[in-house]
Amino acid sequence: MLCPYCERKCRLDGDAVGFCRMYVAGEDGIRERFPDRWCAYAVSRLETIPFYHVYPGGRCLVVGTAGCNLDCRYCSNAYAAKEDPAELADILLTLRPETLVDLARKQGCHAIVFSINEPTVSLPTLQRVSKAAKAAGMPMGCLTNGYATTLGTRLLGEIFSFVNVSLKGLNAAFCEKYLGIADSSPVIRNIRELAAHCHVEVTTPVIESENDHELDQMAAILADIDPLIPWHVFRLLPVYKMSNDKYPGIESLNAKLVEHRKTLPYIYFHNFIGSPWVNTTCPACGQTVITRHSLGCGGDKLDEFRLVDGNHCPACGGQIRLHGEKVTWNSKEATA
Amino acid sequence: MSIAILDAREWQQAVDLGTGRPVAGQGPKTDMVRGLLARHPFPGDRDPRGNTWVTDTALDLTAAYDPDFVFLTYARQYYSARYSPLHDGERAEMVAAAFAEAQRFASQSGYLTVVIGTCGMTPAVAGIDLTGLDGLGVAANWSTRYAGVYNPSPRDLDFLAKHDGLERVASRAEILELFGGGPEDGKRLPDYMVVNRTGRYFNTTSLRRLLMIPNAAPVMPVSTNLGPVDSITDIKAALLALLATHKKVAVAYLESVGCEDFQIPYTTCRNGLDWYRYEPGDAHYLTMTTGRHAVFSHNGGYRYYLDDTETKKYPFSGYFTEIPQGSIGQDYPGRSIAVGNRSMFMHVTTGCDITVECFARNLYNQGLMAVLHRDDK
C-alpha cells in the first residue's frame, strides 16, 4: 500500500516505515507506529509560532511528535524531526488526547498548536486530539510544510482551524537541494485548498542567493490565492546542515519586500532579534494597529493591540483580518 | 533608562530595555559597544570558540571602558556536557580550557581574578514524568532538580511520596520556614516543590535528550584568593571587600565546574541551605550577586508563564519582569562590566554598567545583546 497522507506516497509493505518512519501498513490499512507519543509540550505565545492574526495575545500549548516528511538542510528542530523516531521512543511522552487537552487547560492555554515537527506524520493521533479539544472548546492550529496529499490536506483542514504553511521554495533544483523533494507544486495547491477552509498564514525562510530571487513569484502566487494572507518572510537561521553558512543580510532582504507590501498588506520580515518589521498596519489607511516585539526564533510577543470593536482600525474603521478575538494572557487561569 | 543593543549579525537595533521599543541609541559609549559587538560575533553555545569569545570580548571591553570590576561567565562546558555526547577525556579538556581562558584574561588584563565554580555534572540516568498528576506538575526547561506541583490530589501526594526518584516533597510552608519567609514571600512558590535524587531529572518541556545534568552539590568551590567564604551568600561581600583593597578585580564564573573539577587552589562554601542546593541558573546567579537567597522569587517550580503578559516590562530579558536590585554591579560605585555566554543572566543578575551576552536561547544562536545600565561613571 501507498501512504495516503504525504506527497511522497511511500510504499508501506511488510516492515517498510516510509520516509518519515512514523507509519506502517496494518491489517486494516495504514497504522501509526507511535500513537499518542509526544516529544514535548510547552506553554508559548501564539505570536511566537508565528501566528500574528490569530487570537492576538493568546497562550497556547505547543506540542510535537517525531519525524518529518521533508529533509530540510536547515531544520531547526532536527533533534525531534530528523532522528529516527524509534531511537527517541524511550524519551517520548505518552499522553492520551484527553490528558493533553487537560494539560493545556490546567496551564491556562487558549489553544493547542502543533509546531515542532510535521503534523502530516501523525494525523490519526491528531484527529483524536482534535476530537477531545473540540469537546473542550479549545481551538487547534499547526505549522506544516504543506507537502501532504489532498486527503492529508483535507484532514489537516478538519483538525486545525488555523494553519501556517511553509512555502520554502519554488524551483526544482532548490527543492531537491534544500528540502529533499522534487518540487513544491503540492504545497501551493494545498495553501489554496487550506485557505478556502481555515485561517492560513504562510512562512518563507529565505536563504540569500538561493531562494530570495523567488520572492516576487511567491508574492504573486499568494496575491492570487488571497492578498490578505499574512506572509512571514524569515531570515533563515543557519542551523543543522547549514550551521557553517553565513547569516543572510537583513537590509538587502527587506529591500526585496518593499514593493510587495503594496499588494500584500500583511507581510512581516522577522526571525531575528529586534526586527522592526513585525507590526500590523491597516491596509486602508496605513495606521499601525498592532505592535509586536521580535525576540528572534525564541519567540515573538504582542506589544500593543490598538484595534477597536474587535478587528477595526481605530483611525479609519477598516477591518483587519483576524481569526478569533484579542485574548488576555491570563484569562483562562481561573479554570486551572 | 537602560539601553540594549541587539546585534543580529551585521545588523543592529537599539531598544529601551524596559519597553523593548526602538530608540536612537547613539553616543560615545553606545557607539563603542556597537563596534565591540560587530567585532566579536558569537560563535555558539557549544562551539569550541565559545569560551574564547568571552575572554576576547572582555579584554576588548576592558581596554575601552577601563572598569574596576569585571564579571565573566564561561558556560561552553555546561551546554556541551548537557547535550553533546562527550568521550571520557573530552569534558575534562573543556574544563581545562575554561580555566585556561580565565587565566588568559587574568594575565592579559592584570586583574586579580577570582575563579568560582558551581557544581559538577553527573550522567542523566532517568526522567520522571509528572503529566499523570491530577494537579499540575511544572518543570522548567533548564532545571532538572526541582519541579513545582499545584493543586495536588491525595492520590498525587501518595504517588510523589512513594516515587523512588524523588528525594523530597517540600510544601510551601516548609520552604518558607527553611528560608525564614512570611506568607507574602510564598506567592511565587508552588504548593509543593519536588526534589530529584542525583541523576534523575524531570521530563520537561523540551525533548532534547539530556546526557549530563548538574549534580547540585552541597558546596561550591571558590579560589583561595577571595579569602574564606562560608556560604554562597557571602561571595558578594567578599568581592566588595576585595575591591576595596585591590584596584582591579575580576570574577570568572565557570558553569558546571565542581570541586572535583577545580584546577587551582580553592576553598568551599555552602551552595544553598540545608537540603536546598542551587542548580546553575537564575537563582544561583542572583544569590551570588546579591548576597541574598533568591528562592522565593526564582525557583524551578514557578509558573513563569503567568508573568508573560503583554504589559510585562523587559521583553528582551526572558522571564524577568524587573532588573533585580542590590546586585554587586549596582552596589559597587566604580566602573563595572560583565561578559558571558550564559545568555540573559549577565545584564539581569550582575547589574554591571555594561554587559555583553550571547543572545542564544535554547541553543539557537541569534547574535548578541549588550546592555548599558549606566552611562554616568
Chart the SSEs and their pairings.
The complex is a heterodimer of chains A (336) and B (377).
Chain A: E1 23-26, E2 29-32, E3 37-38, E4 40-45, E5 59-64, H1 78-81, H2 85-88, E6 93-94, H3 97-106, E7 111-114, H4 123-135, E8 140-144, H5 150-159, E9 162-166, H6 172-179, H7 185-195, E10 199-206, H8 215-225, E11 231-235, H9 250-255, E12 267-270, E13 280-281, E14 288-293, E15 301-305
Parallel strand pairs in A: 5-7, 7-8, 8-9, 9-10, 10-11, 11-12
Antiparallel strand pairs in A: 1-2, 3-6, 4-5, 13-14, 14-15
Helix pairs in contact in A: 3-4, 4-5
Chain B: E1 3-7, E2 12-16, H1 28-39, H2 50-65, E3 69-74, H3 76-83, H4 88-109, E4 112-116, E5 121-123, E6 126-128, E7 136-138, E8 146-150, H5 154-162, E9 166-171, H6 172-179, E10 192-196, E11 200-202, E12 212-214, E13 219-223, H7 235-245, E14 249-254, E15 266-270, E16 272-273, E17 276-277, H8 282-290, H9 328-331, E18 336-340, H10 345-349, E19 354-361, E20 364-372
Helix pairs in contact in B: 1-2, 2-4, 3-4
The pLDDT mean of chain A sits at 96
Total helix count of chain A?
9
Structural class of chain B: alpha/beta
In the predicted model, the low-confidence regions of chain B spanning at least 5 consecutive residues are none
Structural class of chain A: alpha/beta
What is the string of SSEs of chain B from the N terminus onward? Answer: EEHHEHHEEEEEHEHEEEEHEEEEHHEHEE
Number of domains of chain B: 2
Q: What strand line-up does the widest sheet of chain B have?
A: 2-1-20-19-18-3-14-4
What is the H level of CATH, i.e. the homologous superfamily of chain A? Aldolase class I
